Amino acid sequence: MSKKGELSITAYEFYRNVFRLKDKELIQELINETEIRRLKKGEHIVHIGEVQKDVYFLETGVARGYFLDINGKDVTDCFGFRQGTAVVSFGQLELNAPSSMTIEMLEEGSFFCIPVAAVIRLQQRYKEAMILYNQLLITALKEHWELKRILNSYTAVQRYQWFLKEYPGLIDKVSNKYIASFLGMTPVTLSRLRRSLREEQKSDKTP
Question: Which of 63-72, 82-91, 130-139, 145-154 has the lowest average pLDDT?
């Protein structure tokens, strides 16, 4: 269950330092619209087919977005763990569109939440808000195309090594089955890769 609470960073610090916004009037309007929420592990931000009413900006925690394949099996599409990440369905970046995925918490998290209606209004009034929105769109597009390229051109070992580099620390926080799904391999294959790389590291350290 979500609730209001205190975070380790203020809303002003978040919008000013994380998003690098300079317009003080815009920042104040964002603060006025912001609700602080905490979600526990296992709670959901949105389910497939729902319209997400608020944009969730991640302060802490880990979230996973997934969709269902033709057999009804969930396929991990993305992870949210970096501060400032807009935790919304990729399709919902169009705003007010039904979500193409379910987003669940893998670890308790804190968010700065703003109603979608307010986001639309602020885009119309402030150039800097529109620029930020476009930056978020571009970032989401780049991440999805990069993942598509990795899945189609890298070997299993290369995909795993890419994950370790691009998602630092997540390997110890997220279930193997979710990471394997994200990287387009089976949990068994991922376990073998991890074991093999650990053994290689041990042998390299042996005098």
Answer: 82-91
Contact 78, 27 (CB under 8 A): no
pLDDT per position as a tens digit, 8-22: 789 999 999 999 999
| Model pTM score | 0.86
Strand locations in 70-158 (E)? 74-80, 86-87, 102-115
Beta carbons of 79 and 62 less than 8 angstroms apart: yes
**How many alpha carbons fall within 13 Å on the CB side of residue 203?**
6
Measure the CA–CA gap between 194 and 191, rounded to whole angstroms.
5
Query: What is the distance between the alpha carbons of residues 96 and 118, in angstroms, rounded to a whole number?
Result: 12
Rounded CA-CA distance 182/136 in Å is 21
* DSSP classification of residue 50: P
